[in-house]
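[PROTEIN RECORD]
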Amino acid sequence: MPCRTRVNPIKQQEPTDMKMRLTFGDHTMTATLYDNASARDFASLLPLDLEIKDFGSNEKIANLPRKLTVEGNEPFSNERPYDLCYYMPWGNLAMFYADYKHTGLVRLGRFDDRFEALHAPGEFPLRIERIQ
C-alpha cells in the first residue's frame, strides 16, 4: 500500500506573509493568503484583471482564468465573514461579507481591512496584485 502524507488541516488555515491588494471601483482592500496549495496556486496567477460581481446576499464572486489545485485541502468549519475562498465546482473566487456555510469551498485567506468595499453593490473591473 502506498504511503500518503496527510495534510494538517490546522496548518491550511494559518496566514502566511503573502499579501495582495484588490482594487475595484473606488475601493482598495488587502488580504492575507493562507498556507495551502490552492492559495499558492492562486498567488502564481497574480497579477489578475477580472470582473467582480454580486452573488446571493452574502458574497461577491470573480471568475478565474483556470481552476486551482485543490490537492490536500480539507473541509473547514469555522466560516466567518471576510473570508476569501475558492469555490471548487465553478472554479471562481468567493469573497464573503456575511455569514456563510457551503461545501465545496477552500479558504484561500482573509481580508485585512476596508471590509466595507465588499458591501458596495454592483459589477466592477477587479485588479488583484501581490504586494509582498
Notes: The beta strands are 15-24, 27-34, 48-55, 59-63, 83-87, 92-96, 105-111, 124-130. Helices lie at 37-45.
